[in-house]
From TrEMBL:
Keyword terms, alphabetized: Zinc
InterPro entries the record matches: GlcNAc_PI_deacetylase-related, LmbE-like_dom_sf
Any Gene Ontology biological process: glycoside metabolic process
Any GO MF annotation of the entry: hydrolase activity, acting on carbon-nitrogen (but not peptide) bonds, in linear amides
Gene3D superfamilies hit by this protein: LmbE-like
Organism the protein comes from: Spinactinospora alkalitolerans
Protein name, entry field: LmbE family N-acetylglucosaminyl deacetylase
Length: 237
């Protein structure tokens, strides 16, 4: 089955800036080229300790990177729901009620406001507490109900990141593959380069070689050159 991305409105939930590119960079490139609308709801961002010579990236640097990546992918809009060190890497302390309500209706990029046809979120088996909290909150916000009263996107996916693969209870291989061409993979890597505070030299889960290798592996599993892997949580055909 193929998807005509030209008619899709895609809403991606990213716990932090770069998660959307790591998980969905190829899909965003492919969908935008076809004419889709793409929106990114970031959950939080703050000063981030890292292994760079200065030891951290600032929130101002992270905002600058987001703007460059947004222009590169030509997102229709993006927003950060809970900015600042009070929330960054602490989403597990935020009540799921508050986080789910933001996702469902209390944001300019909420499901109720946008009525997306496709929703994509992180997978709940991530080792990162912010990813887990986001995944569970999206799951709650998209709970089954009467679709005459609440919007139900036709396709709900969970994206993968290479960093998630080492957990002993990690999810099974993706059951939904999006075929990519080499240009889509190149766009994904180019966007990660714009996240200069986050990309790393190999060996690292956010290196260029890791991203290209994972795309080649998922492509092989689908009998094509490159692909991105997702877990389909709901698919209404």
């Amino acid at each position: 089955m193929t998807i005509d991305w030209a008619h899709e409105r895609v809403l991606i939930f990213a716990p932090h800036p770069d998660d959307e590119t790591l998980g969905c960079g190829g899909l965003m490139s492919k969908a935008k080229a076809a004419g889709a609308e793409v929106y990114v709801q970031f959950i939080t961002v703050g000063d981030t300790a890292d292994l760079s010579p200065k030891g951290q990236s600032t929130v101002q640097e992270r905002y600058g990177e987001i703007k460059e990546v947004a222009d590169f992918f030509r997102w229709n809009d993006w927003q950060i729901a809970f900015p600042g060190d009070e929330f960054h890497l602490k989403l597990d302390r935020l009540a799921r009620f508050e986080l789910s309500n933001m996702i469902e209706r209390h944001s300019p990029l909420s499901i109720a406001e946008l009525e997306p046809t496709v929703v994509i979120a992180p997978h709940r088996t991530s080792y990162n507490q912010d990813h887990q909290a986001t995944a569970e909150a999206v799951h709650t916000a998209l709970r089954p109900s009467d679709n005459r009263l609440r919007h139900h996107p036709r396709l709900v996916l969970a994206y993968e990141e290479a960093a998630d693969q080492w957990r002993y209870e990690a999810a099974a291989s993706p059951n939904f593959l999006v075929e990519l061409d080499e240009g889509h993979v190149d766009d994904k890597i180019s966007a990660m380069r714009l996240y200069g505070t986050q990309i790393h030299e190999h060996p690292h889960t956010r290196s260029e070689l890791t991203l290209r290798s994972l795309a080649a592996l998922r492509g092989m599993q689908g009998g094509v050159a490159f692909a991105e892997g997702y877990h389909a949580l709901r698919w209404l055909a």
